[in-house]
Amino acid sequence: MTEFPLTLLYDGACPICRFEMERLREQDSLHRLAFVDIAATGFDPRHWGDGKATLDHMQQLIHAVRPDGEFLLGVDALVAAYQAVGWGHWTWPVRLPFLRPVADRGYAAFARHRYRVSRWVMPWLAALWARGAARRMRACANGTCPLPPSHPRRGDA
Question: What is the pLDDT of residue 135?
Fold first, then answer.
């Protein structure tokens, strides 16, 4: 089965969701992911899943769609996305049978409260991300750029 491109249907109105999609987009040097913001004006859920998916359902958990139309929901969608960008090694805990139910319930709880969690966590995440971006920029200026080869580097045409 062809797994890519994997299309992520995410809530762009959620700051943490946007933040994580941006991190994935930056790491996607093989262009295995496509991103669709379900909060965008004009988004029509009828275009996904043979018209059976509803916006309410999509807002409950992140959805991913494989090229054959198969839906992955919640933790499965995130695991597939992380594997697509080479971060699959970070997903081993949620693939353990005894931890998977905890991960599913934890993600569902996060998804239900993602706007409130964003208000609490985003200032800290934004500061952390800004420090990392500044560190990467300094490294590129010094000739030891850590960005993937698909990203234009300083001095590249």
Answer: 79
Q: Counting every residue, how long is the chain?
A: 157
Q: Please indicate, yes or no, whether the overall pTM of this predicted structure exceeds 0.85.
A: no
* pLDDT tens readout for residues 47-59: 887 767 788 889 9
pLDDT at 132 over 80: no
CA–CA gap between residue 102 and residue 66 (Å, rounded): 25
Beta bridge partners of 9: 36, 63
Long-range pairs, 58-65, Cβ under 8 A, ≥24: 58/9, 59/11, 60/108, 60/111, 60/112, 61/107, 61/108, 61/111, 62/8, 62/9, 62/10, 62/11, 62/17, 62/111, 63/8, 63/9, 64/6, 64/7, 64/8, 64/9, 65/6, 65/7, 65/9
Lookup: tokens for 97: 């049978």
CA-based nearest residue to 6, from 94, 100, 69? 69
